[in-house]
Amino acid sequence: MKILHLRKTQATYTIIILNFILFGLEIHWGGSNNLYTLDSLGALVPEKVWSAGEWWRLLSANFLHFGVLHLFTNMLALFLLGRVVELNLGTARYLCVYFSSGIGSMLFFSLLSLKRGENHLVLVGASAAIMGLIGVLLAISLRVWLKKKTALNAKRLKLIILVIIIQFIFDYLVPQVSFYSHLFGLIIGFLVGSFLLLINFNYD
Q1: Count of the separate structural domains present in the chain
Q2: Model pLDDT for residues 142-165, shown as the tens digit of each residue
Q3: What are the φ and ψ backbone dihedral angles of 176, each rounded to 5 degrees?
Q4: Exposure string (b/e) for 108-128, b if CB count within 10 Å is 16 or more?
Q5: Which of 64, 16, 19, 72 minimizes the C-alpha distance to 37?
Q6: Dist CA 92 CA 77 (whole Å)
């Protein structure tokens, strides 16, 4: 059974490995706290996305992290949540949710930053894509509860909502954390996940 699950969640493990590889490059090229290094490797800088046409930053920024703690907290969350979502959706749809949440969040964040005149902000991390996975779990839990309003299903739904509330309280209290990128990731993950569930899935 463990081997079967390993094969079914190979995308999650691959993404985690890629994040560690990119972190190794950060260390090798100047350090994970070095803004010049992060910029060189593809951190999200709204001005460079829109003025210089460096659209690839919308993707690459999802694989970069500012410091060891940032990396390990995100990878732990991805390890715990990614496997659950991948097992429920399948690899192709899981990747669709993950990357649409990550890239979409970076896109909307950069638009918001430009509108607010914050052109030179630097944003990195997988957390927006991970929030997209939480959005999918919210969609799944809500769908299951609407079909069968049992106490257990209600408890699962409330737990997901509680996790979201705690996350946004943390985002509000810590200035270095991007509240809006997490919010965009959550919304995109919920919407994309809901669509995929609607057209392909029937949960008992």
Answers
A1: 1
A2: 998 888 888 887 888 899 999 999
A3: -75, -15
A4: bbbeebbeeeeeebebbbbbb
A5: 64
A6: 20
CA 99 to chain centre: 8
Per-residue DSSP letter, 63: G
- The enclosing domain of 10 has a CATH number of 1.20.1540.10
What single DSSP character describes residue 44?
Answer: B
Q: So which residues are the catalytic ones? A: 127, 182
Give the pLDDT confidence score for residue 7 in this predicted structure: 61
What are 88-132's pLDDT values in tens digits? 899 999 999 999 999 999 999 999 988 888 877 899 999 999 999
Q: Which domain range does residue 108 map to?
A: 2-200
Q: What is the pLDDT of residues 18-60, one digit of tens each?
A: 999 999 999 999 988 899 999 999 999 999 998 889 999 999 9
Contact assessment for residue 27 and residue 100, using Cβ atoms and an 8 Å cutoff: no
Determine the Cα–Cα distance for residues 191 and 200; give it in Å rounded to an integer.
14
